[in-house]
Amino acid sequence: MTGQGQARKAGGRGGDLLVYALPNLAQAMASFGAIIVFSRVLSPAEFGAYAIGLASFALLHTCFLTALEAAAFRFRPEAEAAGAGAPLMARVLGYWVLAFGAAAAICLGWAMIAPDFAKIAPAVLAAMAGMSLARLVVETRRAQLRNLAAAQISTFLALGGFAIGLALALTTPLGAAAPLHGLAIAGALAALLFGRAEIFGQSPRFANPFADPMLHYGYGLAAALALDLGLSIGDRFVIDFLRGKEAVAAYAAGYGIAHRIIDIVFIWLGMAFAPRLQAAFHRDGKVGVAAQSRWMIEAMVAIALPAAVGLAIVSPTLIGVLVGPDIAPAAQQIGPLIALAAFFQGCSVHYFSEAFQLAKRPWRRALILIAPLLVNLGLNFAWISIWGLAGAVGATLVSFVLACGLMMGFGRRLIPMALPIARLARPVAASGVMAAALLGLPVSDDLVGLSAQVLVGAIVYVAAAWGMDVMGCRRDRAGLILSLTGKAV
Questions:
Q1: Is residue 218 part of a domain?
Q2: Is 199 in contact with 93 (CB distance < 8 Å)?
Q3: 217 in a structural domain
């Protein structure tokens, strides 16, 4: 049996959700570890500069390089079926050289007019290069349904980037740039260790970018993702402009805790379900999407909604425990509404937007997101001036809800994604029961009390979900288990 066949068989036995649980757990550890450690190791001003550098890295990477990673995933199966997997990657690498050059020019140009950014610009560029090359390898593995290999590389990137960044922060004078250099080194090592065939086994091939459907798809998707990202991180730049880097530090820490937990849940679900949804579409068209997406949205709501509701209630305690004491009081204001906003963004990005990917209409998705982004920026400038960080949180929630509604409405015109209201009402009701139980508990300010709240919330939700037969857990336990382990769709 080939390595790819073994990977498919292993993925079927272990289940896509279980395979991708490991890298998402690693990502959670790295994300929260970064906030816990760097909010203490770095000064508030340095942590704010790190948050701006990380946001800049994410924005530039998304605008210029994510398109090529998406193309490596979306077009690899077709290329391999035609025996053209290697030429496809050579073409992707050729475009990568051009795209990274453009990103570097913008980054360096920005550094010339912003002296504070100039201190961190080299680390931003290094992180972009290393992480993007590694992500090309990950997306190739996912396209080949080698989910275990993709999960292993993703785990290495998350934990390795954090560990190396922490070592640099403790032993060098790099300051705010240290965590970004950690990402750069981890990405370069992953590309060298796992991507010799894809990245270093062939020469980049330069083609006419204006005539390549792969780029039309990839950059349409990147434009939409950049607008999604703008909704998430644009407020940091506004806060920096209006309130300074210490305010950015508090906002980034509170946002990072509350949003990242829900984001990781959706990424986990999306990584597991997106390949199945794509396969169902190619196999059975819109009929296959209807069947697969019904299960997908039900699982997302049943898992992510209680996480968001519970986090909204306990986030002040969680942020107080995890974040450095210099910025924790301000950061605690951020958590509750951001946790709820993250749920709407997750549904938008990881579910309703799939209609645009499957229909190969990413540019339409990008155009739709212009309105929420403008609303977000406008409300940020207006509300931050009046209410400070609370105004930024309110602007985020309004814009995320608007984006989710637009994605749902316009996406259904292309490919109707299932929305079984009656079945979704069950996890919503179960989450309400859990919220009532949590609100009835005494307010805690330490880790022991927080752990008790989480345990009570989990027990109450599981009991309520069982009683309401969420996802058929009571009536069809065997079918649910088979679906979760990848043996039935």
A1: no
A2: yes
A3: no
End-of-domain residue from the set 192, 207, 222:
207
**Same domain flag for 363 and 324:** yes
Are the C-beta atoms of residues 281 and 288 closer than 8 Å to each other? Answer: yes
Pairwise CA distance, residues 337 & 313, whole Å: 10
Q: What secondary structure does DSSP assign to 362-406, as a single string?
A: HHHHHHHTHHHHHHHHHHHHHHHHHHTHHHHHHHHHHHHHHHHHH
Q: How far is CA 162 from CA 81, 129, 182, 331, 354, in A?
A: 38, 17, 6, 22, 31
Token digits of residue 320: 């107080």
Angle CA 159–161–167, to nearest 5: 100
pLDDT at 482 over 70: no
- Distance in angstroms (rounded) separating the CA atoms of residues 413 and 427: 27
Same domain, 468 and 320: yes
Whether 31 and 260 have beta carbons less than 8 Å apart is answered as yes
Same domain, yes or no: 193 and 336: no
Residue 86: pLDDT over 80: no
Choose one of 157, 190, 207: the last residue of a domain.
207
Residues 62-68, mean pLDDT to the nearest whole number: 92
Eight-state DSSP code of residue 350: I
**b/e map of 193-228 (b: 16 or more CB within 10 Å)?**
ebbeebbeeeeeeeeeeeeeebbbbbbbbbbbbbbb
Looking at the structure, do residues 370 and 268 belong to the same domain, yes or no? Answer: yes
CA distance 189 to 131: 10
Same-domain status, 252 and 176: no
Q: Into how many domains does the chain fold?
A: 2
The DSSP code for 444 is -
311 shares its domain with 350: yes
Where are the alpha helices (H) located in 15-120, listed in sequence order? 16-19, 21-41, 44-64, 66-74, 76-81, 85-113, 115-118
Band of pLDDT at residue 483, cut at 50, 70 and 90: low
User: Quick one: 303 and 441 in the same domain?
Assistant: yes
For all residues of the chain together, what is the average pLDDT? 87
Q: Is residue 94 part of a domain?
A: yes
**Residue 110, SS3?**
helix
- To the nearest 10 degrees (0 to 180), the angle between helices 21-41 and 245-322 is 120
| Residue span of the structural domain in which 65 resides | 1-207
Give the C-alpha separation, 139 to 344, whole Å.
25
Instruction: Dump the DSSP string for 266-294.
Output: HHHHHHHHHHHHHHHHHHHHHHHHHHHHH
Which pair of structure tokens corresponds to residue 321? 């425990």
pLDDT beyond 50 at 121:
yes
CB of 117 within 8 A of CB of 173? no
Both 287 and 186 in one domain: the answer is no
- Overall average pLDDT of the 397-417 stretch: 93
Residue 212 lies in a domain: no
C-beta of residue 414 within 8 angstroms of C-beta of residue 359? yes
